[in-house]
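hiii so um. not sure if this is the right channel but i have a protein structure encoded as tokens and i wanna go backwards to a sequence. like what aa goes where. can anyone help
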């Protein structure tokens, strides 16, 4: 019987685990559940004899691949796979996949939750402002970017996007104005929603040069990754401009400093929670389980990333 390990330090909603179990039961596979593990050793032990793994932001390092002797496939139930050591996976002949788009609506909704919380001053009873008529820049027009645009239209925001990998025609069709450079996006938009992946080209790429271009009351909304922010540059803008705000689902390393020094101008979630909805967990979890079955039974490598 094939074994599939779900290794999640931040567990899926129980209803999603049930959905994963159903898919695996139907295929005649066994589900091994490792939730809220506290050490890599625990994960390594559980991984020793499994054929497949489903993870979230869990760090699949070379050590894990070394321990998982029978592993054939690992699926990141989510979009970003910067937490998987792809070289190590490939070296061990393991296929790595993600489940793009499955949790994107949840992430987009959180971006608006943070924006509303911020412009309404944390619902503290004082007078805030509105999103309607404000310019929203969508930095990267992938799955999350598209949901952001869809929701923003309901708020009657003016929409702009920068994404060199997406045809302007695709962006225009959604009623969004494509811009040619990152600088234009930051210069023109009251809010910028950051939806870029974290990779060698994007790490530390959002810093002083771009953020200082934002107009008065400029607000950066980060539901992507903390690694894409150049924290020194961010701190410099926060210090120089008392109108600039930073809202993030990924608290920066400097979060204590920034929270204490700039109250009212930052919003951080308690834990990365963009994809923390039952719906997103069901979509991504079931997609991951289905992709595993399709790969192990039929060799289907759709969504392979290595
Ligand atoms: C993703 O890349 O899909 C999101 O960042 C969600 O991450 P999570 O599964 O750890 O919540």
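sure thing!! here u go:
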């Amino acid at each position: 019987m094939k074994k599939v390990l779900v290794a999640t330090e931040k567990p899926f909603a129980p209803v999603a685990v049930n959905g994963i179990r159903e898919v695996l039961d139907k295929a005649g596979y066994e589900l091994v559940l490792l939730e809220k593990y506290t050490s890599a050793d625990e994960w390594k032990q559980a991984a020793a004899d499994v054929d497949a793994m489903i993870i979230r932001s869990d760090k699949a390092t070379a050590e894990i691949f070394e321990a998982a002797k029978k592993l054939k496939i690992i699926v990141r139930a989510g979009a970003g796979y910067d937490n998987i050591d792809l070289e190590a996976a490939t070296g061990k002949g393991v296929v790595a996949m993600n489940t793009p788009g499955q949790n994107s609506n949840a992430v987009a909704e959180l971006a608006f939750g943070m924006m509303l919380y911020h412009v309404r001053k944390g619902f503290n009873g004082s007078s805030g402002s509105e999103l309607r008529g404000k310019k929203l820049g969508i930095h990267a027009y992938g799955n999350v970017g598209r949901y952001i645009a869809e929701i923003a239209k309901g708020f009657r925001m003016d929409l702009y996007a920068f994404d060199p990998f997406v045809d302007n025609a695709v962006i225009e069709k959604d009623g969004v104005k494509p811009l040619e450079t990152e600088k234009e996006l930051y210069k023109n938009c009251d809010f910028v929603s950051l939806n870029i992946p974290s990779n060698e080209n994007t790490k530390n790429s959002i810093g002083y040069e771009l953020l200082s271009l934002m107009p008065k009351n400029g607000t950066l909304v980060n539901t992507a990754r903390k690694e894409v922010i150049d924290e020194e540059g961010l701190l410099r803008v926060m210090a120089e401009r008392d109108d600039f705000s930073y809202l993030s689902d990924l608290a920066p390393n400097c979060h204590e400093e920034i929270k204490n020094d700039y109250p009212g101008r930052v919003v951080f979630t308690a834990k990365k929670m963009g994809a923390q909805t039952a719906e997103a967990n069901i979509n991504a979890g079931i997609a991951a389980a289905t992709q595993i079955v399709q790969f192990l039974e039929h060799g289907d490598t759709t969504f392979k990333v290595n």
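oh and Residues 10, 56-57, 78-80, 103, 272, 274-275 surround 3-phosphoglyceric acid (CB under 6 Å).
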